Amino acid sequence: xxxLTEYGPSLIVLLTALMVLFVGPNAVRALQYxxxxxxxxxxxxxLEGPDNILAQINQASRDIATAVEPSVVHIxxxxxxxxxxxxxxxxxxxxxSGWIYDEAGHIVTNYHVVENAEEIEVxxxxxxxxxxxxxxxxxxxxxxxxxxxxxRLSGSRLGDLDSTVQQGDLVYAFGSPFDFRFSMSQGVxxxxxxxxxxIRGRGGYENFIQVDAAINPGNSGxxxxxxxxxxxxxxxxxxxxxxxxxxxxxxxxxxxGLAIPLRMIVPVVDQLINDGVVRKxxxxxxxxxxxxxxxxxxxxxxxxxxxxRVESVEPDSPAERxxxxxxxxxxxxxxxxxxxxxxxxxxxxxxxxxxxxxxEVWRYDTTIKMGRTISLDVVLETLSTLxxxxxxxxxxxxxxxxxxxxxxxxxxxxxxATQAKVPFVAGVIIRELxxxxxxxxxxxxxxxxxxxxxxPVKTTNDLLTQLRxxxxxxxxxxxxxxxxxxxxxDGTTAKPTLYVD
Length: 501
What we know:
- The protein is an alpha+beta fold.
- It is 25% helix and 32% strand.
- It has helices at residues 2-23, 25-48, 53-68, 111-114, 262-274, 292-301, 318-322, 341-349, 385-389, 414-420, 460-467, and strands spanning 72-81, 90-100, 106-110, 117-123, 129-138, 143-147, 170-175, 183-194, 208-211, 223-225, 231-238, 243-244, 247-248, 257-261, 281-282, 285-289, 308-313, 329-333, 336-337, 356-365, 370-379, 381-382, 406-411, 428-433, 448-452, 455-456, 482-487, 493-494, 497-498.
- Strands 23, 24, 25, 26, 27, 28 and 29 form a seven-stranded antiparallel sheet that branches. Strands 1-2-3-6-5-4 form a six-stranded antiparallel β-barrel. Strands 7-8-9-14-11-10 form a six-stranded antiparallel barrel.
- The protein is globular, with a radius of gyration of 32 Å.
- 35% of the residues are buried.
- Residues 242-250 have low confidence and may be disordered.
Protein backbone atom coordinates (compact mmCIF):
# COMPACT_ATOMS: atom_id res chain seq x y z
CA UNK A 1 0.00 0.00 0.00
CA UNK A 2 2.82 2.30 0.94
CA UNK A 3 4.62 1.61 -2.34
CA LEU A 4 1.45 2.36 -4.32
CA THR A 5 1.09 5.72 -2.54
CA GLU A 6 4.69 6.60 -3.18
CA TYR A 7 4.71 5.60 -6.82
CA GLY A 8 1.09 6.53 -7.65
CA PRO A 9 1.74 9.94 -9.30
CA SER A 10 4.53 8.51 -11.35
CA LEU A 11 2.30 5.68 -12.55
CA ILE A 12 -0.44 8.16 -13.57
CA VAL A 13 1.99 10.19 -15.63
CA LEU A 14 3.33 7.03 -17.22
CA LEU A 15 -0.17 5.74 -18.05
CA THR A 16 -1.12 9.12 -19.56
CA ALA A 17 1.97 9.08 -21.74
CA LEU A 18 1.22 5.53 -22.88
CA MET A 19 -2.40 6.55 -23.68
CA VAL A 20 -1.28 9.51 -25.79
CA LEU A 21 1.25 7.27 -27.49
CA PHE A 22 -1.23 4.53 -28.33
CA VAL A 23 -4.44 6.60 -28.78
CA GLY A 24 -2.58 8.95 -31.12
CA PRO A 25 -1.87 12.65 -31.68
CA ASN A 26 -5.22 13.12 -33.46
CA ALA A 27 -7.15 12.87 -30.22
CA VAL A 28 -4.88 15.49 -28.56
CA ARG A 29 -5.27 17.84 -31.50
CA ALA A 30 -9.04 17.37 -31.41
CA LEU A 31 -9.06 18.27 -27.73
CA GLN A 32 -6.94 21.40 -28.38
CA TYR A 33 -9.21 22.39 -31.29
CA UNK A 34 -12.29 22.06 -29.15
CA UNK A 35 -10.78 24.23 -26.45
CA UNK A 36 -9.74 26.89 -29.03
CA UNK A 37 -13.18 26.86 -30.64
CA UNK A 38 -14.83 27.35 -27.27
CA UNK A 39 -12.51 30.26 -26.50
CA UNK A 40 -13.32 31.88 -29.88
CA UNK A 41 -17.04 31.57 -29.24
CA UNK A 42 -16.71 33.12 -25.80
CA UNK A 43 -14.55 36.00 -27.15
CA UNK A 44 -16.94 36.62 -30.04
CA UNK A 45 -19.91 36.78 -27.68
CA UNK A 46 -18.10 39.31 -25.50
CA LEU A 47 -17.03 41.44 -28.53
CA GLU A 48 -20.53 41.40 -29.99
CA GLY A 49 -22.26 41.90 -26.65
CA PRO A 50 -23.59 45.19 -25.26
CA ASP A 51 -20.78 45.53 -22.71
CA ASN A 52 -17.91 45.65 -25.23
CA ILE A 53 -16.00 48.80 -24.32
CA LEU A 54 -14.31 48.87 -27.75
CA ALA A 55 -17.73 49.12 -29.40
CA GLN A 56 -18.52 52.08 -27.16
CA ILE A 57 -15.20 53.74 -28.04
CA ASN A 58 -15.80 53.10 -31.74
CA GLN A 59 -19.27 54.61 -31.55
CA ALA A 60 -17.90 57.61 -29.64
CA SER A 61 -15.38 58.22 -32.44
CA ARG A 62 -18.21 58.07 -34.99
CA ASP A 63 -20.25 60.50 -32.89
CA ILE A 64 -17.35 62.96 -32.75
CA ALA A 65 -17.03 62.86 -36.53
CA THR A 66 -20.78 63.37 -36.94
CA ALA A 67 -20.88 66.30 -34.51
CA VAL A 68 -17.75 68.10 -35.69
CA GLU A 69 -17.54 67.60 -39.46
CA PRO A 70 -20.41 69.99 -40.36
CA SER A 71 -18.42 72.88 -38.85
CA VAL A 72 -15.19 72.07 -40.71
CA VAL A 73 -14.44 73.85 -43.99
CA HIS A 74 -11.88 73.56 -46.76
CA ILE A 75 -10.30 76.88 -47.82
CA UNK A 76 -8.87 77.54 -51.29
CA UNK A 77 -6.84 80.74 -51.70
CA UNK A 78 -5.56 82.69 -54.67
CA UNK A 79 -2.62 84.79 -53.52
CA UNK A 80 -0.50 87.63 -54.82
CA UNK A 81 3.16 86.71 -54.39
CA UNK A 82 6.37 88.49 -55.28
CA UNK A 83 9.06 86.76 -57.29
CA UNK A 84 12.71 87.67 -57.59
CA UNK A 85 12.58 86.48 -61.21
CA UNK A 86 9.70 88.75 -62.24
CA UNK A 87 9.13 92.47 -62.14
CA UNK A 88 5.55 92.16 -60.95
CA UNK A 89 3.59 90.02 -58.49
CA UNK A 90 2.23 86.71 -59.72
CA UNK A 91 -0.68 84.55 -58.63
CA UNK A 92 -0.23 81.45 -56.51
CA UNK A 93 -2.75 78.92 -55.23
CA UNK A 94 -2.83 77.30 -51.81
CA UNK A 95 -5.29 75.64 -49.51
CA UNK A 96 -5.93 74.97 -45.87
CA SER A 97 -8.69 74.35 -43.39
CA GLY A 98 -10.93 76.29 -41.05
CA TRP A 99 -13.96 75.98 -38.81
CA ILE A 100 -17.27 77.80 -38.59
CA TYR A 101 -17.24 80.01 -35.50
CA ASP A 102 -20.86 81.16 -35.51
CA GLU A 103 -24.04 81.06 -37.57
CA ALA A 104 -23.32 84.58 -38.86
CA GLY A 105 -20.77 83.03 -41.23
CA HIS A 106 -17.53 83.83 -39.40
CA ILE A 107 -14.82 81.23 -39.98
CA VAL A 108 -11.59 80.87 -38.00
CA THR A 109 -8.36 79.79 -39.67
CA ASN A 110 -4.63 80.48 -39.57
CA TYR A 111 -3.37 83.83 -40.82
CA HIS A 112 -0.74 82.06 -42.93
CA VAL A 113 -3.55 80.23 -44.78
CA VAL A 114 -5.12 83.47 -46.09
CA GLU A 115 -2.06 85.75 -46.08
CA ASN A 116 -1.92 87.97 -49.19
CA ALA A 117 -5.22 86.47 -50.38
CA GLU A 118 -6.67 87.86 -53.59
CA GLU A 119 -9.64 85.49 -53.62
CA ILE A 120 -10.91 83.02 -51.03
CA GLU A 121 -13.29 80.14 -51.67
CA VAL A 122 -14.77 78.03 -48.87
CA UNK A 123 -16.13 74.51 -49.35
CA UNK A 124 -18.64 73.31 -46.76
CA UNK A 125 -18.91 69.68 -45.72
CA UNK A 126 -21.93 69.36 -48.04
CA UNK A 127 -19.75 70.23 -51.02
CA UNK A 128 -21.29 73.69 -51.41
CA UNK A 129 -18.83 76.45 -52.40
CA UNK A 130 -19.05 80.01 -51.07
CA UNK A 131 -16.85 83.06 -51.56
CA UNK A 132 -15.26 84.54 -48.46
CA UNK A 133 -13.67 87.82 -47.44
CA UNK A 134 -11.15 88.59 -44.72
CA UNK A 135 -12.68 90.19 -41.61
CA UNK A 136 -9.36 90.67 -39.84
CA UNK A 137 -6.23 88.92 -38.67
CA UNK A 138 -3.56 88.95 -36.00
CA UNK A 139 -0.26 87.88 -37.49
CA UNK A 140 1.35 87.73 -34.03
CA UNK A 141 -0.84 84.76 -33.05
CA UNK A 142 -1.34 83.44 -36.61
CA UNK A 143 -5.11 83.76 -36.27
CA UNK A 144 -7.47 85.09 -38.94
CA UNK A 145 -11.23 85.47 -39.33
CA UNK A 146 -12.95 85.25 -42.71
CA UNK A 147 -16.66 85.48 -43.48
CA UNK A 148 -19.08 83.81 -45.84
CA UNK A 149 -22.77 84.48 -46.42
CA UNK A 150 -24.76 83.03 -43.52
CA UNK A 151 -27.48 80.44 -43.86
CA ARG A 152 -27.61 76.67 -43.31
CA LEU A 153 -24.43 76.72 -41.24
CA SER A 154 -23.50 74.51 -38.30
CA GLY A 155 -21.43 76.46 -35.77
CA SER A 156 -18.55 74.80 -33.98
CA ARG A 157 -18.84 73.34 -30.50
CA LEU A 158 -16.47 75.50 -28.48
CA GLY A 159 -14.86 73.99 -25.44
CA ASP A 160 -14.87 75.55 -21.98
CA LEU A 161 -12.21 78.27 -21.72
CA ASP A 162 -11.83 77.53 -18.02
CA SER A 163 -11.17 73.82 -18.54
CA THR A 164 -7.57 72.66 -18.53
CA VAL A 165 -6.08 70.52 -21.28
CA GLN A 166 -3.94 67.81 -19.73
CA GLN A 167 -1.16 65.63 -21.04
CA GLY A 168 -2.67 62.31 -22.13
CA ASP A 169 -6.07 63.74 -23.10
CA LEU A 170 -7.63 62.21 -26.22
CA VAL A 171 -7.74 64.64 -29.16
CA TYR A 172 -9.05 64.62 -32.73
CA ALA A 173 -7.64 66.76 -35.56
CA PHE A 174 -9.83 67.76 -38.52
CA GLY A 175 -8.85 69.29 -41.85
CA SER A 176 -7.64 68.62 -45.38
CA PRO A 177 -4.18 67.02 -45.20
CA PHE A 178 -2.60 66.89 -48.67
CA ASP A 179 -6.01 67.99 -49.99
CA PHE A 180 -7.74 64.86 -48.61
CA ARG A 181 -10.66 66.99 -47.56
CA PHE A 182 -12.63 66.64 -44.33
CA SER A 183 -10.26 64.12 -42.79
CA MET A 184 -10.06 63.17 -39.12
CA SER A 185 -7.16 61.77 -37.10
CA GLN A 186 -6.87 60.71 -33.48
CA GLY A 187 -4.16 61.02 -30.85
CA VAL A 188 -3.34 62.31 -27.40
CA UNK A 189 -1.94 65.51 -25.93
CA UNK A 190 1.81 64.93 -25.79
CA UNK A 191 2.73 68.20 -24.08
CA UNK A 192 1.74 71.81 -23.45
CA UNK A 193 3.37 75.23 -23.55
CA UNK A 194 5.54 74.40 -26.57
CA UNK A 195 7.44 77.06 -28.52
CA UNK A 196 9.33 76.25 -31.72
CA UNK A 197 9.85 79.62 -33.40
CA UNK A 198 7.25 79.26 -36.16
CA ILE A 199 5.38 82.39 -35.05
CA ARG A 200 7.85 83.73 -32.48
CA GLY A 201 10.40 84.14 -35.28
CA ARG A 202 8.41 87.09 -36.61
CA GLY A 203 7.67 88.63 -33.22
CA GLY A 204 4.61 86.58 -32.36
CA TYR A 205 3.40 84.49 -29.45
CA GLU A 206 3.59 80.73 -29.04
CA ASN A 207 2.03 78.47 -26.43
CA PHE A 208 1.27 75.38 -28.51
CA ILE A 209 -0.50 72.20 -27.52
CA GLN A 210 1.64 69.30 -28.75
CA VAL A 211 -0.28 66.29 -30.05
CA ASP A 212 0.56 63.04 -31.81
CA ALA A 213 -2.60 63.09 -33.93
CA ALA A 214 -1.56 63.11 -37.58
CA ILE A 215 -1.30 66.72 -38.81
CA ASN A 216 0.04 67.39 -42.29
CA PRO A 217 0.14 70.31 -44.77
CA GLY A 218 -3.49 71.25 -45.40
CA ASN A 219 -4.56 70.65 -41.80
CA SER A 220 -3.58 74.21 -40.88
CA GLY A 221 -6.56 76.14 -39.56
CA UNK A 222 -8.66 73.07 -38.82
CA UNK A 223 -10.13 72.44 -35.36
CA UNK A 224 -8.60 70.25 -32.68
CA UNK A 225 -11.29 68.74 -30.44
CA UNK A 226 -11.45 66.75 -27.24
CA UNK A 227 -13.28 63.44 -26.64
CA UNK A 228 -16.58 65.33 -26.39
CA UNK A 229 -16.14 66.88 -29.83
CA UNK A 230 -15.52 70.30 -28.27
CA UNK A 231 -12.96 72.57 -29.93
CA UNK A 232 -9.90 73.01 -27.72
CA UNK A 233 -7.45 74.38 -30.29
CA UNK A 234 -6.53 74.99 -33.92
CA UNK A 235 -4.05 72.91 -35.93
CA UNK A 236 -1.21 75.20 -36.95
CA UNK A 237 2.18 73.57 -37.47
CA UNK A 238 4.14 70.35 -37.60
CA UNK A 239 7.66 69.55 -36.49
CA UNK A 240 9.38 67.32 -38.99
CA UNK A 241 12.96 68.41 -39.59
CA UNK A 242 16.01 70.13 -38.16
CA UNK A 243 15.62 73.57 -36.63
CA UNK A 244 16.24 76.64 -38.69
CA UNK A 245 16.64 80.25 -37.66
CA UNK A 246 13.11 81.05 -38.74
CA UNK A 247 11.40 77.95 -37.36
CA UNK A 248 11.13 74.35 -38.47
CA UNK A 249 11.64 72.68 -41.79
CA UNK A 250 8.40 72.03 -43.65
CA UNK A 251 7.57 68.42 -44.39
CA UNK A 252 5.29 65.54 -43.46
CA UNK A 253 3.94 64.43 -40.12
CA UNK A 254 6.47 62.73 -37.86
CA UNK A 255 4.57 62.41 -34.60
CA UNK A 256 4.59 66.04 -33.46
CA GLY A 257 1.64 68.27 -34.29
CA LEU A 258 1.17 71.75 -32.82
CA ALA A 259 -2.10 73.54 -32.14
CA ILE A 260 -2.99 77.01 -30.82
CA PRO A 261 -5.03 76.60 -27.60
CA LEU A 262 -8.62 77.84 -27.55
CA ARG A 263 -7.83 80.26 -24.74
CA MET A 264 -5.59 82.19 -27.13
CA ILE A 265 -8.04 82.00 -30.03
CA VAL A 266 -11.32 83.27 -28.56
CA PRO A 267 -10.11 86.70 -27.30
CA VAL A 268 -8.50 87.42 -30.68
CA VAL A 269 -11.47 86.22 -32.74
CA ASP A 270 -14.07 88.09 -30.68
CA GLN A 271 -12.09 91.33 -30.94
CA LEU A 272 -11.63 90.95 -34.70
CA ILE A 273 -15.36 90.35 -35.17
CA ASN A 274 -16.55 93.10 -32.82
CA ASP A 275 -13.84 95.78 -33.10
CA GLY A 276 -11.61 94.91 -36.04
CA VAL A 277 -8.58 95.55 -33.81
CA VAL A 278 -6.82 93.17 -31.42
CA ARG A 279 -5.73 94.57 -28.06
CA LYS A 280 -3.43 92.49 -25.92
CA UNK A 281 -2.74 92.47 -22.21
CA UNK A 282 0.35 94.23 -20.86
CA UNK A 283 2.08 93.31 -17.60
CA UNK A 284 5.26 95.41 -17.64
CA UNK A 285 8.23 93.28 -16.66
CA UNK A 286 11.27 91.65 -18.24
CA UNK A 287 11.24 87.87 -17.71
CA UNK A 288 13.98 85.30 -18.18
CA UNK A 289 14.08 81.52 -18.34
CA UNK A 290 15.70 79.65 -15.49
CA UNK A 291 18.97 78.13 -16.72
CA UNK A 292 21.00 75.36 -15.08
CA UNK A 293 23.12 77.70 -12.93
CA UNK A 294 20.10 79.69 -11.73
CA UNK A 295 18.20 76.46 -11.12
CA UNK A 296 20.97 75.24 -8.83
CA UNK A 297 20.97 78.50 -6.90
CA UNK A 298 17.20 78.41 -6.47
CA UNK A 299 17.29 74.81 -5.28
CA UNK A 300 19.81 75.82 -2.65
CA UNK A 301 17.31 78.46 -1.50
CA UNK A 302 14.52 75.90 -1.35
CA UNK A 303 12.72 76.35 -4.68
CA UNK A 304 11.96 73.15 -6.56
CA UNK A 305 9.89 73.26 -9.70
CA UNK A 306 9.45 75.30 -12.86
CA UNK A 307 8.87 78.99 -13.39
CA UNK A 308 10.05 82.24 -14.94
CA ARG A 309 12.34 84.71 -13.19
CA VAL A 310 11.50 88.41 -13.08
CA GLU A 311 14.60 90.24 -14.31
CA SER A 312 13.16 93.72 -13.81
CA VAL A 313 9.84 95.51 -13.30
CA GLU A 314 8.95 98.63 -15.26
CA PRO A 315 8.10 101.68 -13.12
CA ASP A 316 4.39 102.52 -12.82
CA SER A 317 3.44 99.34 -14.67
CA PRO A 318 0.66 96.85 -13.84
CA ALA A 319 3.38 94.50 -12.52
CA GLU A 320 4.74 97.12 -10.12
CA ARG A 321 1.30 98.19 -8.94
CA UNK A 322 0.38 94.52 -8.44
CA UNK A 323 3.35 93.91 -6.15
CA UNK A 324 5.73 91.96 -8.39
CA UNK A 325 9.42 92.38 -7.60
CA UNK A 326 12.75 91.64 -9.21
CA UNK A 327 13.90 88.02 -8.66
CA UNK A 328 10.34 86.77 -8.10
CA UNK A 329 9.73 83.38 -9.70
CA UNK A 330 6.38 83.31 -11.52
CA UNK A 331 4.99 79.78 -11.34
CA UNK A 332 1.30 80.19 -12.22
CA UNK A 333 -1.02 82.65 -13.93
CA UNK A 334 -4.50 81.67 -12.91
CA UNK A 335 -4.58 77.91 -13.29
CA UNK A 336 -1.91 77.90 -15.99
CA UNK A 337 1.49 76.67 -14.93
CA UNK A 338 4.22 78.90 -16.36
CA UNK A 339 7.57 77.37 -17.29
CA UNK A 340 9.02 79.62 -20.04
CA UNK A 341 9.10 83.24 -21.12
CA UNK A 342 7.31 82.36 -24.37
CA UNK A 343 4.48 80.80 -22.41
CA UNK A 344 4.29 83.79 -20.06
CA UNK A 345 4.12 86.28 -22.95
CA UNK A 346 1.44 84.19 -24.65
CA UNK A 347 -0.79 83.90 -21.58
CA UNK A 348 -0.53 87.63 -20.81
CA UNK A 349 -1.12 88.72 -24.41
CA UNK A 350 -4.19 86.45 -24.61
CA UNK A 351 -5.78 88.19 -21.63
CA UNK A 352 -7.84 91.27 -22.38
CA UNK A 353 -6.66 94.66 -21.06
CA UNK A 354 -8.51 95.66 -17.91
CA UNK A 355 -8.89 92.09 -16.66
CA UNK A 356 -7.54 91.10 -13.27
CA UNK A 357 -5.31 88.03 -13.18
CA UNK A 358 -3.98 86.05 -10.23
CA UNK A 359 -0.21 85.54 -10.40
CA GLU A 360 1.45 83.02 -8.12
CA VAL A 361 5.11 83.70 -7.36
CA TRP A 362 7.82 82.18 -5.24
CA ARG A 363 9.78 84.86 -3.38
CA TYR A 364 12.96 84.45 -1.37
CA ASP A 365 13.18 86.52 1.81
CA THR A 366 16.82 87.41 2.46
CA THR A 367 16.02 88.41 6.04
CA ILE A 368 14.73 85.06 7.19
CA LYS A 369 16.68 83.09 4.55
CA MET A 370 13.55 81.33 3.36
CA GLY A 371 11.29 81.36 0.35
CA ARG A 372 7.50 81.38 0.28
CA THR A 373 4.70 81.27 -2.27
CA ILE A 374 2.40 84.29 -2.51
CA SER A 375 -0.56 85.21 -4.74
CA LEU A 376 -0.88 88.64 -6.35
CA ASP A 377 -3.83 90.21 -8.15
CA VAL A 378 -2.75 92.29 -11.16
CA VAL A 379 -4.95 94.36 -13.48
CA LEU A 380 -3.49 94.31 -17.00
CA GLU A 381 -3.19 97.32 -19.29
CA THR A 382 -3.03 97.47 -23.10
CA LEU A 383 0.16 96.27 -24.77
CA SER A 384 1.83 98.88 -26.96
CA THR A 385 2.37 97.18 -30.30
CA LEU A 386 4.80 99.91 -31.27
CA UNK A 387 7.00 99.64 -28.17
CA UNK A 388 7.11 95.86 -28.03
CA UNK A 389 7.06 94.88 -31.70
CA UNK A 390 8.26 98.05 -33.40
CA UNK A 391 5.14 98.35 -35.54
CA UNK A 392 2.58 101.14 -35.72
CA UNK A 393 -0.89 99.77 -34.82
CA UNK A 394 -3.88 100.58 -36.99
CA UNK A 395 -5.58 102.51 -34.17
CA UNK A 396 -2.54 104.69 -33.42
CA UNK A 397 -3.63 108.27 -32.46
CA UNK A 398 -2.54 110.84 -35.04
CA UNK A 399 -1.40 113.51 -32.59
CA UNK A 400 1.47 111.78 -30.82
CA UNK A 401 4.13 109.05 -31.04
CA UNK A 402 5.53 108.85 -27.50
CA UNK A 403 7.36 105.60 -28.23
CA UNK A 404 9.33 107.49 -30.89
CA UNK A 405 9.98 110.43 -28.58
CA UNK A 406 7.24 112.67 -30.03
CA UNK A 407 4.82 113.95 -27.36
CA UNK A 408 2.73 116.14 -29.69
CA UNK A 409 2.61 116.53 -33.47
CA UNK A 410 0.21 117.84 -36.11
CA UNK A 411 -0.20 118.33 -39.83
CA UNK A 412 1.82 121.45 -40.61
CA UNK A 413 -0.13 124.60 -41.51
CA UNK A 414 0.82 128.22 -41.98
CA UNK A 415 -0.86 129.09 -38.69
CA UNK A 416 1.08 126.47 -36.73
CA ALA A 417 4.34 127.46 -38.47
CA THR A 418 3.74 131.11 -37.54
CA GLN A 419 3.04 130.15 -33.92
CA ALA A 420 6.28 128.14 -33.80
CA LYS A 421 8.16 130.92 -35.62
CA VAL A 422 9.45 128.55 -38.29
CA PRO A 423 9.24 128.66 -42.11
CA PHE A 424 6.21 126.79 -43.42
CA VAL A 425 6.68 123.63 -45.49
CA ALA A 426 4.25 120.79 -46.08
CA GLY A 427 4.72 117.93 -43.62
CA VAL A 428 4.23 117.04 -39.96
CA ILE A 429 5.28 119.65 -37.41
CA ILE A 430 6.77 118.58 -34.08
CA ARG A 431 5.08 120.52 -31.29
CA GLU A 432 6.55 118.82 -28.23
CA LEU A 433 9.09 116.04 -27.53
CA UNK A 434 9.32 113.56 -24.66
CA UNK A 435 11.89 114.18 -21.97
CA UNK A 436 14.59 111.80 -23.26
CA UNK A 437 15.65 114.07 -26.19
CA UNK A 438 17.06 111.10 -28.09
CA UNK A 439 17.53 112.96 -31.40
CA UNK A 440 19.61 115.90 -30.16
CA UNK A 441 19.45 118.92 -32.47
CA UNK A 442 18.16 116.96 -35.45
CA UNK A 443 14.55 116.92 -34.19
CA UNK A 444 13.36 119.78 -31.97
CA UNK A 445 10.00 121.51 -31.41
CA UNK A 446 9.13 123.38 -34.57
CA UNK A 447 10.91 120.94 -36.86
CA UNK A 448 8.82 119.58 -39.75
CA UNK A 449 9.09 115.99 -41.02
CA UNK A 450 8.74 116.11 -44.81
CA UNK A 451 9.82 112.60 -45.92
CA UNK A 452 9.96 109.01 -44.65
CA UNK A 453 12.65 106.96 -46.39
CA UNK A 454 12.51 109.39 -49.30
CA UNK A 455 8.71 109.28 -49.65
CA PRO A 456 7.04 112.70 -49.15
CA VAL A 457 4.53 113.06 -46.30
CA LYS A 458 2.13 115.98 -45.99
CA THR A 459 -0.15 114.91 -43.13
CA THR A 460 0.04 112.92 -39.90
CA ASN A 461 -1.92 110.17 -41.65
CA ASP A 462 0.72 110.08 -44.40
CA LEU A 463 3.43 109.82 -41.75
CA LEU A 464 1.76 106.92 -39.92
CA THR A 465 1.01 105.12 -43.19
CA GLN A 466 4.66 105.23 -44.23
CA LEU A 467 5.98 104.32 -40.76
CA ARG A 468 3.78 101.18 -40.67
CA UNK A 469 5.99 99.64 -43.32
CA UNK A 470 9.02 99.54 -41.03
CA UNK A 471 10.17 97.85 -37.86
CA UNK A 472 10.98 100.82 -35.62
CA UNK A 473 12.74 99.07 -32.75
CA UNK A 474 15.89 100.72 -31.50
CA UNK A 475 18.72 100.44 -34.07
CA UNK A 476 21.41 100.00 -31.44
CA UNK A 477 20.36 96.34 -31.30
CA UNK A 478 21.06 96.01 -35.00
CA UNK A 479 17.47 96.22 -36.21
CA UNK A 480 14.70 98.68 -36.85
CA UNK A 481 14.44 102.40 -37.36
CA UNK A 482 13.73 104.49 -40.46
CA UNK A 483 15.40 107.59 -41.85
CA UNK A 484 13.24 110.71 -42.14
CA UNK A 485 13.90 114.10 -43.69
CA UNK A 486 13.39 117.01 -41.30
CA UNK A 487 13.37 120.76 -41.97
CA UNK A 488 14.71 122.35 -38.78
CA UNK A 489 13.48 125.71 -37.40
CA ASP A 490 16.53 127.48 -38.87
CA GLY A 491 15.64 126.19 -42.36
CA THR A 492 18.41 123.60 -42.57
CA THR A 493 17.73 119.95 -43.36
CA ALA A 494 18.61 116.87 -41.29
CA LYS A 495 18.07 113.14 -41.81
CA PRO A 496 17.79 111.45 -38.40
CA THR A 497 16.57 107.90 -37.79
CA LEU A 498 13.27 107.46 -35.93
CA TYR A 499 13.30 104.49 -33.57
CA VAL A 500 11.70 103.10 -30.43
CA ASP A 501 13.88 103.55 -27.38
